[in-house]
Every structure is written in C-alpha cells, then in structure tokens.
Automatic annotation (TrEMBL):
GO molecular function, one term: ADP-heptose-lipopolysaccharide heptosyltransferase activity
Protein name, as recorded: Putative glycosyltransferase
GO terms (BP aspect): lipopolysaccharide core region biosynthetic process
UniProt-listed Gene3D superfamilies: Glycogen Phosphorylase B, Spore Coat Polysaccharide Biosynthesis Protein SpsA, Chain A
The species this protein was found in: viral metagenome
InterPro entries: Glyco_trans_8, Glyco_trans_9, LPS_LOS_Heptosyltrfase, Nucleotide-diphossugar_trans
Keywords attached to this entry: Glycosyltransferase, Transferase
Cellular component GO terms, alphabetical: cytosol
Length: 621
C-alpha cells in the first residue's frame, strides 16, 4: 500500500456516473497498482509527497480488545466473494460490541454490498483518506489475505479464513453463521421481476442462471463448453439467463448462444451490483465457476453447481445449502501446489486445463438428477449414471513405433523412460514393431492404432526418438477425454501459426476441402481417445499428395475433417530444437522439457544417450 498526496485535484468516476475529487495536498491510501496508474495518467509529478504506510498503522492492530465506544477501520479493495466473507466477522464484532463504530473500505463498485449493512457505520470508497486510519482506534488490513500463499489460505474455507483473521475460533462457529448476507434493493428487484415477467420467465420451466466469465482466465469456464452447456439445457426444456457484469454483455452476444427465447443475455440488464443481486434472486438455480455469482446465490439460499479447478470447491462453497461442487482435477491442480506462480497454461495458451474437465453432460445430469429434485422440481431426471470427472476408470496405453535397425537402437535408449511413465500414469506400454499397414512410408504404421482403440479408451503416442522426463505430469489428466491434444508444429508452438500453410493447401487440394485454414500439430506426441478413431482414416492418403512429412499432414487433415476438439499442449510436452529445447546447445537445455523429442538432432542416438544420463542424474539428485 502507498500513502501519498497530490499536487493537483484529481477527479475519479464513481458508480452511477458521479465524480469524486481527490483533493490536492491531502493524503490518501492507495494500492500500489492504482498508485502506478495515477502516475501513468497524470504523470509522475502528480505525486507531491509520500509517507510509509506501516507507520500509519503502528499501535492499531486488533487482537480481541473491547471495541465498545471504539472505532475500527476494515478495508479490502475488491472481490465480491472476499468482501462478503470479510463482512461476517465484522457483523460478529458489532454484535459483541454494540457501541463500536465500524468503518468499511472497498472499491466504490461494491457500495451496494456494504453500505446497506446495518453493522456498517460508514462506507469509504478507495482510495481511502488517511484521516480514516489516523482517527480509528484499530485498523484491519485484509489485502492479500486470500491471494498470499499460506497454509491457512490453502486449507481453510474462505469464510473460516476471514473469521480467523479477526481472531475468532472458526471451528467453534456454527456453519449456519458462515452464510453471507446481501440486502436486496426493493426498487431494483421490482424492475428485474418485471423484466422476468415480460420475458415469460416467471412461470413454466426452471430458469437457470449461468455465469462463466471471472476476473481471471484461469477460473473461466471455456466458451466452447459453455455454449454446449446452454444447448444441452435447452434440449432438456430448461431456460437459461446468462449473467455477469454489464461489460461482458458484448462477449456473450458474440458467442451466439442467446436466442431470447430459451436463453437470455441478462448481463445487459446488470447496471449495478444491486441488479446482479436481483437477477440471481429470481433464478431457480445458479451454475458458474469460482466467482461472485456463487457467493451471492449462497447468501440468497439459491441452489448452485460450482465449477472448480484452480481452487477446491470445499474452500469456497462448503457451507452453502444445496451446493454441489464439480472439481476438475489435474496433476497440477489446485493452483497453490505451485505457490504464487501463475498458471503457465493460462498465461501462454489463454486456457485453463482443469476448467476444461467439468463436462457439460455431467453438469446437466447433476442439475436434473440432484439439484432440481432436491427443491421439488421434477420431470427432468436423466436415467444415466453420473460419471466421475477425474481420475476416471479408463484403460490407457502408451505406445511407440520402432521398425528398422535405427529405430530399435533408439528404443533401447528410450524404453526405460517410456515404460516408467506408463507405470506412473497407470497405462500399458506397447511397441508397434511389425509392418501391417504396409504403406509407402514406415511411419504410416502409426495407423495400426485404429485397431488398438478397440481395446483401449485412450492412447498416448510417442515417437521412438523421445525420452520422458521422470517428473512429467499425467497427460491423461491434463487433457479432457473428448479432446485430441498435441503441440503445434512451430517454433513458438502457437496453434494459429501458418508455417505449415503449404501442407494445409496441398493436402486439401488432393483429399478435399474441409475448411482448414490454419493450425498444424506435430504428431510425435499425440493423445486421443476412442472418440477419435477417425484420425486414422485412409492411411494411404499420404501417397496422393506431396509433403515433407510421412504421416503428419494426413493426421492433421483427419482432425480437421472430423472437426474433433483440439487442445494445443504447451511446448514442454514435445520439446524439440524447433521450439527451443536442444541437446546440442551449450549448455543443453533439453531436460527443461517434460517430453524430450530428438527430431533432427543428429547424431540422434548419441544425443539421446547423453541426455538420458543427465535425466537419471537429475532425478537421483
């Protein structure tokens, strides 16, 4: 936090279109990010002077003292769920010390959440005037409580976490007291009720509120799965209203999922936080990821299905009534297993692997077979047993291709790492070592995997010139079962890279146009399931067009022909010289990859042996 004064008056926009003036020469408490933004907009010279924040709160820590006739200033800038959790111990303190004065600070957009609360003496929007801190007897600074990696933040439910922060023995507090509160604005609620009425949503089939945008991509439910979910609910005769801040209304429209008959874009009706409260209040059930909607629904007693991955569902919705959490589990989830580091998949790929795992079919079954019957809404049950997300009971295979003397020599080096990985991920291991397809190129023998799918649910194929790092995570958990996954075949591993455009053109010219304009994967590491048997259509197609590859372009063509869902893997899952992992660099960085592919790294067998020794040494060390 920063404490500073300004050389000139500054005007800030407020909720409802008003303005707030930060007066020159007065001191304000700012978040460091906002401090930087002020300087970017008004110039560095706008800052007149600074004071150390820590010195302003010396002697103001709260450790259970009597608060009667005392003033406490509590603040946290953002996060609706976090602020709702923060308010619970504040209310508890107000009950214990009725004559206390509670000042609460947050971003102005959360005024509707905090200001109506009778336990709050005054709401203060950020940036906070320093006088509120100086004139208060105690100051509680909640910033970073949830975000900072700690034993408590990774094991306690968020409502317990905030009770603990104010010194309450959270284990002794009844779960019924761990339900947040919100206050419905009657005028706004009437307007929303009339909107529902006008659209025919107050009678008939259930109305499900759906939210999928969060404040960070790592918690977002993927748009393609969201679209599928809306469609499947519509087929069940269930209507949906898509909720969120008004700023996401255009994004929702771009998805093309709202026909305004069975699915409605209600983000455009969300003018304020009060509007969001009331929209959720008129829904039968809420479905969404780890974001504001779940906490609001919990406060209102609205049943919910929470979609989780980065954070376990029990740390957020454990105390809510009629709440089911669906957790997408991968070997890298929950996120706090790797500390405060950001999810590398969401940073580099713009996606969250664990959030791809909650399957739309499972969500619909959970709604129809569990949630709706629990509130007396029948007639929507689906007579299909509920499936587990992960780990699932599936028969797995790791397979490689080794035909010819050189391939057998490479297999001698690679076998131990491949067999070890297969055991680690509970998969069988198999070597394709006989020519059955008998095509022009030996690589076409990969197409024998079509028949292997008769006996296995999922297969991970590895070229024989590959070593698997002992610490390689389980790709069967990272990749959803209905996706084909591989690393894009380019130096930057970007799926839209056009470096293989000539292959895209020549294959379609010979085999037929399938609307394939971009995207090309390297087939050296390839994971797929029974659903993707069409990948191995027409093994002799390669003989009908020119290509610099033996099998790769046919596999890519078949992916596009069948419109299979594709998940681009991070380049560490197929580490080649082309994408930055070399056994020939000084020093070699090959072992930085999870799966080490030695394509075109001659002398290949010597380099494989050299790196294999390093891998064994690194792992033993």
């Amino acid at each position: 936090m920063k404490v500073c004064s300004f050389r000139a008056n500054i005007e800030l926009p407020m909720q409802g279109g008003g303005k707030r003036q930060l007066r020159m020469k007065e001191f304000y408490v700012l978040e460091e990010r906002f401090f930087s933004e002020i300087q970017m907009v008004f110039g560095a010279n706008i800052i007149e002077s600074e004071l150390p924040f820590e010195q302003q709160i010396v002697g103001k820590s709260y450790n259970g003292q009597d608060l009667n006739n005392k003033t406490m200033f509590c603040f946290r800038s953002a996060g609706i769920g976090d602020l709702m959790a923060m308010m619970l111990p504040i209310r508890k303190l107000k009950e214990l010390f009725p004559s206390s004065r509670m000042i609460v600070g947050a971003d102005d957009i959360y005024r509707d959440l905090i200001q109506p609360d009778p336990s709050v003496s005054e709401f203060v929007p950020k940036p906070y005037e320093l006088k509120h801190i100086l004139s208060s007897d105690y100051v509680v600074f909640f910033q970073g409580l949830v975000e900072n990696f700690s034993q408590k933040s990774t094991t306690l439910n968020i409502y317990d976490l905030f009770f603990d922060a104010l010194g309450f023995p959270y284990n002794e507090i009844d779960p019924s007291e761990k339900i947040p509160k919100i206050y419905i604005n009657e005028e706004v609620d009437y307007d929303i009720e009339m909107t529902f009425e006008g659209l025919g949503l107050k009678s008939g089939s259930p109305v499900i509120g759906l939210q999928f945008y969060t404040s960070t991509v790592v918690r977002d439910y993927p748009p393609e799965l969201f679209r599928e979910l809306v469609s499947k609910l519509s087929l069940q005769g269930i209507r949906t209203v898509i909720i969120g801040e008004r700023s996401v209304s255009d994004k929702i429209d771009q998805l093309g999922i709202c026909d305004e008959k069975s699915s409605f874009n209600f983000a455009k009706h969300c003018l304020t936080l009060n509007h969001l409260f009331s929209i959720i209040n008129h829904c039968t059930v809420l479905i969404g990821p780890d974001t504001s909607g779940l906490h609001i629904a919990g406060a209102l007693g609205i049943p919910m299905i929470g979609l989780f991955g980065p954070i376990p569902s029990n740390l957020r919705i454990e105390y809510f009534k009629k709440a089911v959490g669906i957790d997408g589990k991968t070997t890298c989830s929950p996120c706090f297993r790797h500390g405060n580091k950001p999810c590398r998949y969401s940073v580099e790929r713009g996606l969250s692997p664990c959030m791809h795992l909650p399957d739309p079919d499972l969500i619909v079954k959970t709604l129809c077979n569990e949630i709706l019957p629990s509130i007396g809404v029948g007639g929507y049950e689906i007579p299909i047993p509920r499936q587990q997300i992960s780990p699932i009971d599936e028969k797995r295979l790791v397979v490689t291709l080794a035909i010819g003397d050189d391939a057998e020599k490479m297999l001698d080096v690679a076998r131990d790492s491949m067999v070890g990985y297969a055991k680690k991920v509970d998969a069988d291991f198999l070597v394709i070592d006989k020519e059955i397809v008998s095509g022009k190129f030996v690589n076409i023998e990969k197409f024998q995997m079509r028949e292997l799918l008769d006996n296995y649910d999922r297969i991970l194929y590895l070229d024989v010139d590959i070593l698997v790092h002992p610490d390689c995570p389980d790709l069967f958990l990272i990749v959803p079962i209905d996706y084909v996954a591989a690393v894009p075949d380019s130096h930057d591993a970007k799926w839209g890279n056009l470096n293989r455009f000539s292959e895209i053109v020549s294959s379609q010219k010979a085999l037929g146009n399938v609307g394939w304009n971009s995207g090309y994967f390297n087939s050296g590491v390839l994971i797929f399931s029974k659903k993707h048997v069409g990948l191995f259509d027409d093994p002799h197609a390669r003989e009908r067009f020119d290509s610099q590859f033996r099998d790769q372009s046919v596999l890519n063509y078949n992916l596009q022909k069948h419109k299979y869902k594709f998940m681009p893997l991070e380049r560490v899952f197929n580490g080649m010289e082309i994408n930055g992992f070399s056994s020939r660099s000084v020093p070699p960085n090959k072992t930085d990859a999870h799966i080490l592919h030695f394509a075109h790294e001659d002398p290949k067998i010597d380099n494989m042996k050299k790196i294999a020794k390093i891998l064994i040494g690194d792992h033993d060390g």
